[in-house]
Amino acid sequence: MSGREVLDSQPVSLVDLLDRVLATGVVVSGDLVLSIADVDLVYVSLRALLASVRAAAGPDPTSGGTPC
């Protein structure tokens, strides 16, 4: 049984999923275009990084490479 099959067969709660996402981090991006009469007036590119402080800080050099 592959790892993918194991993940598909076990339910994951929202709290566990959020914990996994924040532990590793995720980037959310999107584009917004405001236009009138098919004329693009404003273009906004949005990017957000969602991560815990521990994951965003990276490894702590004093602890042998493990995160904070």
TrEMBL record:
Q: Which UniProt keywords apply?
A: Gas vesicle
Database matches in Pfam families: Gas_vesicle
Say which family it is in. Belongs to the gas vesicle GvpA family.
| Name the record gives this protein | Gas vesicle protein
User: Primary place of residence?
Assistant: other
Top-rank taxon: Bacteria
Q: Which organism is it from?
A: Plantactinospora endophytica
Q: Where in the cell is it found?
A: Gas vesicle
Q: Which InterPro entries match?
A: Gas-vesicle_GvpA-like, GvpA
